[in-house]
């Protein structure tokens, strides 16, 4: 009997050790609230001033659920995976084109030398530049730059991608990604690649990055299948090339942080050899008044230069400001109130539209107010 008890104890010990070497974590965010939007173009009618008010999902954070897994392979190596689904909590539908795991789906290996992953992933600019912007940190979808032209809100993911993320070398790190076209005889038709680097030391964070996508919309199995950002140009879904670069920094001191980001996006279209260049200048700040109550503010000046040979040329300008108040009911649940206003210059070639709203403005400006509850698990 004594030998049986000893054997059972040893078996339990090995089982616990094996379990500790492998783990799967379920996580997610559920975000829902009420949103009021002014100056939307009414569907089916000539443009006129119209307002909408309704229940919306993913205002401060995109609603999602996912699984992360890790298995110790020995020698400092580990197998990892992430499967993440996006959904609309207001109506229960799946996001990202009805994909089962449309936000992220990848598998790979991590070690002290870095991490190598394959699948549907965020590009390197999203990883490094996004967190320095208001939309990629505390602000949520509505504070994205016009049409999310620089993908700071991560509305575009890269399919068929291989990504390397370096280890941290005294605060310095870097990343590179390549998304394959997966098309026979057309290696460059709808492919994508990006690279970025960053430095972090105490409260200081600095980052710079570049991304290029070729042949968007011309390959049903290509690297970019999320649809092109709505940058307000006719025929924009068929693109010859899309290039984006950016740099920025932030500094945290005590309960406050400030950030400054610049991004530029260039779009070349198949039709008419047209092109559009967006420049985005953002300054943002965040302050924790108490452990539970925080405030955020962001201002962005956006400019678009449009060129269609033999048809039209011109520039458009917008000023956008966003304010947010957030109150934590617990470590996982909070309430938020946010307002965003975007004002376009007189004579703009491209209209105003706060990113995430259902329709462009019927005039030069568009504003919204949203409030809701967010729960993390």
From TrEMBL:
<dbReference type="InterPro" id="IPR033900">
    <property type="entry name" value="Gram_neg_porin_domain"/>
</dbReference>
<dbReference type="InterPro" id="IPR023614">
    <property type="entry name" value="Porin_dom_sf"/>
</dbReference>
<dbReference type="Pfam" id="PF13609">
    <property type="entry name" value="Porin_4"/>
</dbReference>
<protein>
    <submittedName>
        <fullName>Porin</fullName>
    </submittedName>
</protein>
<feature type="domain" description="Porin">
    <location>
        <begin position="8"/>
        <end position="338"/>
    </location>
</feature>
<keyword id="KW-0732">Signal</keyword>
<dbReference type="InterPro" id="IPR050298">
    <property type="entry name" value="Gram-neg_bact_OMP"/>
</dbReference>
<keyword id="KW-0998">Cell outer membrane</keyword>
<keyword id="KW-0406">Ion transport</keyword>
<keyword id="KW-0812">Transmembrane</keyword>
<keyword id="KW-0626">Porin</keyword>
<comment type="subunit">
    <text>Homotrimer.</text>
</comment>
<keyword id="KW-1134">Transmembrane beta strand</keyword>
<dbReference type="InterPro" id="IPR002299">
    <property type="entry name" value="Porin_Neis"/>
</dbReference>
<keyword id="KW-0813">Transport</keyword>
<dbReference type="InterPro" id="IPR001702">
    <property type="entry name" value="Porin_Gram-ve"/>
</dbReference>
<keyword id="KW-0472">Membrane</keyword>
<feature type="signal peptide">
    <location>
        <begin position="1"/>
        <end position="20"/>
    </location>
</feature>
